[in-house]
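hiii so my PI (J.) wants the whole complex modelled not just the main chain, which honestly fair. so below is everything: two entries, each one labled with what it is. i double checked the lines twice but i was tired so who knows lol
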Amino acid sequence: MTDTNQLTLTTDQFESLPVHEQAQMLRTASTENKRLWLRVLALDDVVDVLQQFKPAEQEELLKLLDARVHADVKALLAWAEDVATGLMNPRYLSARPDMTIQETLLYVREQATSRTSAKTSATSYIYVVRHDDQKLLGIVTSKQLIAASGTALVQDIMFTDLVTVRPDCDQEEIARIFHEHKHLKLKAIPVVDADGRMKGVVSLDDIVEVVRKEATEDIQKMGGMEALDLPYMTTGIMKMVRKRAIFLVTLFLGEMLTATVMTVYQDTLSKFIALAVFMPLIMSAGGNAGSQSTTLVIRGMALGEIRLSYWWKVMRREVVIGTILGIILGAVALLRILAFHDLFGQYDDHFAPLTVAVILSVALVVLWGNIAGSLLPFGLKLLRLDPAVSSNPAVSVFVDVTGLLIYFNVSRLILVGVAGVAL
Amino acid sequence: MTDTNQLTLTTDQFESLPVHEQAQMLRTASTENKRLWLRVLALDDVVDVLQQFKPAEQEELLKLLDARVHADVKALLAWAEDVATGLMNPRYLSARPDMTIQETLLYVREQATSRTSAKTSATSYIYVVRHDDQKLLGIVTSKQLIAASGTALVQDIMFTDLVTVRPDCDQEEIARIFHEHKHLKLKAIPVVDADGRMKGVVSLDDIVEVVRKEATEDIQKMGGMEALDLPYMTTGIMKMVRKRAIFLVTLFLGEMLTATVMTVYQDTLSKFIALAVFMPLIMSAGGNAGSQSTTLVIRGMALGEIRLSYWWKVMRREVVIGTILGIILGAVALLRILAFHDLFGQYDDHFAPLTVAVILSVALVVLWGNIAGSLLPFGLKLLRLDPAVSSNPAVSVFVDVTGLLIYFNVSRLILVGVAGVAL
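here's the output for the full assembly
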């Protein structure tokens, strides 16, 4: 038996934990350990952990920090996590434009070895700011500093064609800005206010996490549920049920319209029981085609490839694609019906009109699934809702209900109207 | 009217194009422009563009490069794009362990200002390698170089606790390694061979693109189609049809089993036409629950949160969650049936046994959808297939067919077996 508290972690181990586990550890740690652990984290990471606590608990933890750090963290906490200010590190290496390279090297060395340097943004950029108002003038890289002659001035070698973001810029937008400028291989983007004053630095490693998290959220929404806050295995059973049940019940209520539709067409159905046989096939074909379209459009929107104004272009494409896919699936359905008719003598009653009704419905429902699946995300975006809510299950439910209407009406038209079968 | 060729781009504009547009431009450009454009790209980007061409065309373009670059690009081309060697930049800043900081600064300055420096990896790390065999010994950051005393030796300040990858390491795996070490805020990971010799550098900006691309591929597969190679708007109509039709036809053939099942139970169905009315509702509820489970498990696997060995843990969770969700949806179905029965006098024949059959089927099919949806990705992974192929539509089709069997058998059992209704 050892006397060691099994909750004791090295600061390194603590630093490497996911943020919700760090919070868990902090809850049960001794005051000494809390202080120790909070001090190893970079400023933006302290903020991330503190956001896991209630305001009163945050205050307690804030007291454990140095006075200077305390103020910075508090200012950051006031911002939502998912805009630039919540993501950025307010500490960065700086220089002034009229310094020589030699002076800058000394100045940077001083900053890099100071007491709070561990909390400084780990990028290799040095931000050139005006002394009186901290206005950002340019950037020099540490590679440039090393390569340049010691007597040159910072303002002569600095980059002035800068990519910057505002403090309230959404994190997804920042990720897109990195993406659009990927040929510049930016390691960080400075955050400046409306007057061009330097506020902090969002670095690329934070953005990788943003890209991963946003993809996960979109995937979960597209799977027909609320996005989880935690990894699958650490989400509690009841929390998981809540995240899933709301959507599942909503979809269920929507799908109940199919029962209403079927009650209306119950007479047709009992007369031609063979229509019921092909019902799941037709609804599923439309739902699957719709899932494909909606997936393509939602992802295209998230990547910034598809804009709201493209809706007409997208719809034209999907009409063409849906028509071709409808014809292909209609042909497959025809082969199936012919084969089972010849082999097993199935579908003998009203064989010809029934066959025409089924293959026509397959083609139309697939086309309709394509149109509905591609337009739904545009509609949601127009209403300023998240397009990802137009999930695969939601599209399936919508196409199920409307597809049934198409199927029953096409069938009645052909069986009763064209073939003259008495109802 | 100007005389300017509208295809003329500045090298900056060219560099910022997506890779398939760069290839497009290169196809139609003059030899002079081709040479100009290829020279501005970093080595790994040249390789990406060349991979868009056929081997014979690649040879033509390779001739336009400097002899030294030529050899490097050729070596890289021999590798698949999606492992470390295809992603890495073989040029990096290096130093030797026994150099002083002062010497290293001069040596790095020399490398950074040399003719081919534009093609050097843009990270701020300097790799310390042994002179005779290029074995990687450590890393110093440029911030360290600036902060350290000029007379110290590189080997005294370098980091030796290194995160490295092998040349054949898959790009998804590299992304995961960056993720696992995110507290280190790594900007790049060195690629070393089995003997520890330095081969090149994979930098974080390449990884952001990998994370984004892998998420897009997974999302498209989960939407029930083959992943696209190009953005939605630039994929040709016929290519899009091919990517979608294969899956759609496969799903359609699978869903045809529902028609077979229904033909078998046609007598039950024509006796109790009300059973047909609730069929879409029950199938959809199972499919939606299955979509949720399969989405959660696939994404959890992609993020490395769920391993193959967790299948039993995951299934136990999903059984509990599925039971609760099944009870909730069963209750909603009960309310619906009671309401419509009282309000509209629907479902009068065999009301009680029919109601029991429907709500029991809803609960069982939801539970079954949960189990099937969560286990399918494990099955695919066990067969070394991509779990993302267990798409939402695929799960829906599977649950449709099996859910129908559950529904008809439960209904027969209760209507005929328990309530004693004559068939």
